[in-house]
Amino acid sequence: xxxxxxxxxxxxxxxxxxxxxxxxxxxxxxxxxxxxxxxxxxxxxxxxxxxxxxxxxxxxxxxxxxxxxxxxxxxxxxxxxxxxxxxxxxxxxxxxxxxxxxxxxxxxxxxxxxxxxxxxxxxxxxxxxxxxxxxxxxxxxxxxxxxxxxxxxxxxxxxxxxxxxxxxxxxxxxxxxxxxxxxxxxxxxxxxxxxxxxxxxxxxxx
Length: 206
Description:
This protein is α+β, with helices and mostly antiparallel strands. Helix content is 37%, strand content 15%. It is built from 7 helices and 4 strands. Strands 1-2-4-3 form a 4-stranded antiparallel β-sheet, with helices on both faces. Helix 1 crosses helix 5 (120-138), helix 2 (24-35) runs antiparallel to helix 5 and helix 3 packs antiparallel against helix 6. The longest helix has 19 residues, at 54-72. The radius of gyration is 18 Å and the shape is globular. 26% of the residues are buried. This is 5,6-dimethylbenzimidazole synthase.
């Protein structure tokens, strides 16, 4: 696949994980691609925690399930019905999880390029996540970003030091297939937005 094929093939995977092993060489290439991402002040403020332990993943999955229930309780009517059909994670089905963290102190106290934009470090971590996701897709693997969690819970579960934020819990592994249409579109949660609606010339336009 060329780069554009990978970008458009990429999906947020939930139900398609097979649980088959991830080859060590493929995992090394994926993490190397993530670590090659650009970062503010060349700080490389990310770390990658590889979570394979079944009990740790079960504990996290119980937490995710509780947070799903919390969100579901805020919905009613058609939104509640649509959400009930949506699978939100592949924590137990995927081969392993990769938790990506952010260390704001790395490269400090004077981080070149961050003095005016405090969030530039978080943006850098997101670039590493995107690299990881695209590399995994190019390897024929799937990735699912789990967002139903509380940061303090994950920090305690994985022994993450104070001051370091867990930015993403990513499920990773071989998949039976990648859906041609994103899940949230297929289930009627939200339709895609056309490019023309997102492009502005010189100034913001309504």
